[in-house]
User: Fold N-acetylmuramoyl-L-alanine amidase from Paracoccus seriniphilus.
Amino acid sequence: MRWIGLILALMLLAIPVRAQEAARLEIGASSLTQTGRGWWGKPPPLELRLGLTRAVPYRVYIVGDPARLIVDLKGADFSGISAEDLFGANLVPAIRWGRYRRGWSRIVVELPGPYRIESAGQRTKGDLPEITIDLDPVREKDFAPRASAATALRDLPEPADLPQIDETPGLTVALDAGHGGFDPGAEAGGEEEADLVLAFAQELRKALEARGVEVVMTRDSDVFVRLEDRMTIAREGGADLFLSLHADALPEGQAAGATVYLWNSRANTRAARQLVTRHERDDLLLGQDLSGQDDALTGVLMDFARTDTQPRAENFARFLTSRLALMGIELHGRPVQTAAFSVLKSPDIPSALLELGFISDDSDRANLTNPAWRARMVDVVAESITGWARDEAARERMLRR
Assistant:
């Protein structure tokens, strides 16, 4: 019996242990932000947040000549992700990351002046672990970098050899201003939802076009467009993303803040039936004429298309809500929700509905009519769209490898 036990033990030792999957950086949940103002010629305080797919051992320190923040992470892999896509990367002279040595990756942040690490910690609760590093500016005489900068900077990662995407060539976005014409949408305080979202959509179009994005508008004036036709307009325009804009109303005190809605996957079966009965068969999937196909096969093909588009829509929602929060835009208590809205049914285009705020809430309504707030919101949404597109392109390149 002892021999049997020994043989079993040796067999177990011979079984290869699967290496733990490398932690990946969730670029949409990561950022570098300014947390205050710089006084008396000093640079502003900064906060670096790194959202990871799992918690990892890490260490942080500052070196001099010039001032740099070093973040070493064990078991992390940043390949295929460009540091230029980090939200807030423009706040510092440069950021780069890459493999440092076997099993370790390194992030180097060139700082705009002397800093000290105020705090650093890793939150491991929840679905997405997060490392947060707070940096405070200091006077030159109080700057205390690590003594051996040369040792710390040895094996510094070179910039990643990735195709650089300055803007988003080829990206087309469909903007859908809700309601219109004889349908004014929600009304409160002398304002109509249809007018407010159309004005926002027109401003967002200008911001996106300035970034090299082609924009398709489902309506560009005070006209009524059927819900089912809005999806068709987006598809005919070759849209890579469909974003519907609203500013709804609910009883006082029940809702405030921006909210992103995605398609409710539990409604897929019902949605397939509705789409099949309401659309021509050649207007259901881009590039696919389903004329002559039975309803069951059509539904299967549409569900198959959603296995690609739904995760991409969810990724966009993460990009958008994280950036809204980082820029101080008030969010609903549940910023991402699901619903069976008609404009989200398209199986072949990643789709989202953005409630800019609730016209029934006094604060939200004041924001929606404030040009300064709208300009800030437009900038955040535009940056979220282009950042999402760059992230999707990077993921696609990795899949091709």
About this structure: The chain has a mean pLDDT of 77. Residues 23-152 form a domain with the Immunoglobulin-like fold (CATH 2.60.40.3500). The chain has eight helices and 18 strands. The longest helix spans residues 295-326.
